[in-house]
Amino acid sequence: MRILFIGDIYGKPGRRAVRLLLPRFQKELEPDVVIANGENLAGGAGITGDTAKEMFRLGIAVLTTGNHVWDQREAIEFLPTEPRVLRPLNYPPGTPGHPCITIQVGDLRLTVVSILGRAFMRPLDDPFRAIDGLLKSLEGETHILVDFHAEATAEKQAFAFYVDGRVSAVIGTHTHVPTADARVLAKGTAYISDVGMVGPRDSVIGAAPQPVIRRHLTQMYQRNETAKGPTSFNAVLVDVDDSGCATAIRLVQEVVE
């Protein structure tokens, strides 16, 4: 199974880059399935039904999210009706939406899981114990991809080693900055600390720099503006054998002028 995982898609520039590049990558890389993080699809903050449908029309099978999942009010009603858009697993019981989905990919099945880290983030249920509980319920499923949406690289690395050999891949998202540590761990789990984003290259994680700089200088609220200019496309391509063990992971990166 070959999986193309696209990093956090940021607003209109990110959606445009996916629209322009994904058809070519599907032809050249021949992924069996495409997954993306969509928590910033709507103006760089949250996800809406319309932005999700746009991505599905382009061939993305599942959208994961993160801490911005509820930034658009309509998500509260939208997520329970769309199992292909995942909210993080470790929100409290009763939170609307679906934390994982199992889809058919050719002759195999793939389970996609969205989960949040806790370091420098809002207090949430323990992601380590949350994944243990989920994996028990998924007994028999061999192909499992986890989007671990977290701030701290140490927490991401610890989580990956914790589940090494029990899931096919742990793909880090959230910081929007790609890391250079893509590799397959000893027991067969593909890992990268952060795949990066699909969004404005000359930005502060997608936002125009000047308002962000003013916020740092004044400590006063400044509304974020989506940056302009070239758009970076960041993704990873993961190969998984029939037993569920990853055999390779590599970066897929391009800039749209």
Give descriptors for this structure.
seven-stranded mixed β-sheet; Purple Acid Phosphatase, chain A, domain 2; 257 residues; alpha/beta; six-stranded mixed β-sheet
Quick gist of this model?
The chain is of the alpha/beta class and 257 residues long. It has a single domain (2-256), classed as Purple Acid Phosphatase, chain A, domain 2 (4-Layer Sandwich). It is 25% helix and 28% strand.
Q: Can you walk through the features of this model?
A:
The chain is an alpha/beta fold and 257 residues long. The chain has a single domain (2-256), classed as Purple Acid Phosphatase, chain A, domain 2, CATH 3.60.21. The chain is 25% helix and 28% strand. It contains 6 helices and 13 strands. It is globular, with a radius of gyration of 17 Å. It starts with a strand and ends with a strand. The mean pLDDT is 96.
Corresponding CATH architecture? 4-Layer Sandwich
**Structural class of the helices, strands and pairings?**
alpha/beta
- Provide the CATH top-level class: Alpha Beta
Strand content: 25-35%
Q: Give the CATH H-level superfamily.
A: Metallo-dependent phosphatases
CATH topology: Purple Acid Phosphatase, chain A, domain 2
Cα distance spanning the termini: 32 Å
The overall pLDDT average reads 96
DSSP, total strands: 13
SSE string, helices as H and strands as E: EEHEHEHEEHEHEEEEHEE
Structural domain count: 1
Cα radius of gyration in angstroms: 17 Å
Task: Give the overall shape.
Answer: globular
The biggest beta sheet is recorded as: 7 strands, mixed
Output the number of helix runs. Answer: 6
Q: Unreliable stretches, pLDDT < 50, 5 or more residues?
A: none
